[in-house]
Design goal:
CATH class of the largest domain: Alpha Beta
Order of helices and strands: HHHEEHHEHEHEEHHEHEHEHEEH
Mean pLDDT: 92
CATH architecture of the largest domain: 3-Layer(aba) Sandwich
CATH topology of the largest domain: D-Maltodextrin-Binding Protein, domain 2
Distance between the termini: 48 Å
Number of domains: 3
Number of helices: 13
Low-confidence stretches: 80-86
Largest sheet: 7 strands, mixed
Number of strands: 11
Strand content: 15-25%
CATH superfamily of the largest domain: Periplasmic binding protein-like II
Helix content: 40-55%
Length: 290
């Protein structure tokens, strides 16, 4: 049995980035936080924190924080003293930056506690569920991951776009393997495979274009408008840009539809039922439906 005061200390340090901030949040001394975490590290026989700054969890530390958050989420749904003393639970959810920026944020007020978002590519979100590090995730695969329920949300349509000046400069002779090898792309991060996936569909070849790495949805969008490169932008985000000509599609077949699914850990499904309904409702309003 773990000392849950020690787990609470670890959780607050991870969420707030320092021992001092965690001590302030829990109303104890910084020394007490340090002693609790040292005792917990002795209990598990592993280092749980990179002391920083900022303090960051090791893989084992992250697992223990996830365990603590999930226990609090379960206790919050109980009647009686245990539920009353559980405190505000934290709900960890894996979601892509694009989905968060365009529609998912509207559902998050229905979360039954504090939200702790893990921003990751939809193709990799399932790994967070499999590892037990999140309670729910928006994924690109229907799954379900073992122990999870899966709900189809619809499809997010992406459009290969760039500024008109960029298209004229790099694709005046057409969008083909040669021009795509030369034209700078915009990539969200190393896990973002949308640009190369679209290239393969268009050319039948595996091409690694020169690319900017811009890991924010807003920055990615603005970089395309400013002519830095071309990229796969969510259609719902750039609809006005397409109407005004700030962005133009690279080809007539510039779209790529990505199916999305809400996977929620079955044991937490009752506590997250309201959030699940809100996620499905928000997706239905925005995503392409069958």
């Amino acid at each position: 049995m773990f000392d849950y005061r020690a787990l609470a200390a670890l959780s607050e340090v991870v969420r707030r980035g320092s021992f001092e901030a965690a001590a302030h949040a829990l109303g104890v001394t910084q020394s007490a936080i340090s002693q609790r975490i040292k005792a917990l590290e002795g209990r598990v026989g592993q280092i749980l924190l990179d002391r920083g700054p900022p303090a960051a969890p090791t893989d084992t530390g992250l697992r223990l924080v996830a365990h603590f958050d999930q226990v609090r989420l379960l206790e919050a749904g109980l009647d009686g003293p245990l539920g009353d003393d559980a405190g505000t639970p934290t709900i960890r959810i894996a979601v892509t930056a694009d989905n968060l920026a365009t529609w998912a944020i509207h559902a998050l007020p229905e979360a039954p506690g504090l939200v702790d978002l893990v921003i990751d590519d939809q193709d990799h979100a399932e790994s967070w569920l499999r590892a037990g590090l999140v309670s729910a995730a928006i994924t690109a695969e229907p799954g379900p991951v073992a122990g999870c329920d899966s709900f189809a949300l619809g499809k997010m349509r992406y459009v290969a776009t760039a500024s008109a000046a960029f298209v004229a400069a790099y694709f005046g002779g057409g969008v083909n393997a040669a021009s795509l090898r030369r034209a700078p792309a915009i990539t969200f991060n190393a896990k973002d495979g949308l640009q190369t996936q679209w290239i393969t569909i268009q050319t039948g070849e595996r091409i690694a274009p020169p690319t900017h790495l811009i890991p924010t949805t807003q920055g990615f969008h603005q970089a395309a408008i400013l002519g830095m490169g071309w990229g796969m932008n969510p259609e719902i985000l750039i609809s006005e840009d397409l109407k005004t000509g700030r962005l133009v599609p690279l080809t007539e077949s510039a779209t790529l539809d990505v199916p999305l699914f809400w996977q929620v850990t079955r044991i937490f499904a009752p506590q997250l039922a309201g959030l699940t309904r809100a996620i499905r409702r928000a997706a239905r309003d925005v995503l392409i439906q069958p």
